[in-house]
Write a structure and sequence with these properties.
By secondary structure, the protein is α+β, with helices and mostly antiparallel strands. The protein has one domain. Helix content is about 15%, strand content about 20%. It has a two-stranded antiparallel sheet with strand order 1-2. Strand 1 and strand 2 form a beta hairpin. The N and C termini lie far apart (about 40 Å).
């Protein structure tokens, strides 16, 4: 299950934790969600899942 947790701190900073994502999908989505808030990005911790290629579905057919 994919899940994004936002923690809004008293100092105005926002902490985001994305779970269940693979590849750059988590960065792309969290950036889109945070854009309207225009937060100052202090740091970004990349998890191991970022380096996993996202699965793609391919279909093959046999014509005869």
């Amino acid at each position: 299950m994919k899940r994004i947790v936002f923690i809004f701190k008293d100092d105005g900073s926002v902490e985001v934790d994305a779970e269940g994502f693979q590849g750059s999908e988590c960065v792309d989505l969290t950036d889109r969600l945070l854009k309207p808030l225009d937060p100052k990005l202090e740091s970004r911790k990349i998890k191991g899942e970022y380096y996993v290629k996202a699965k793609t579905q391919a279909r093959a057919g046999i014509q005869g």
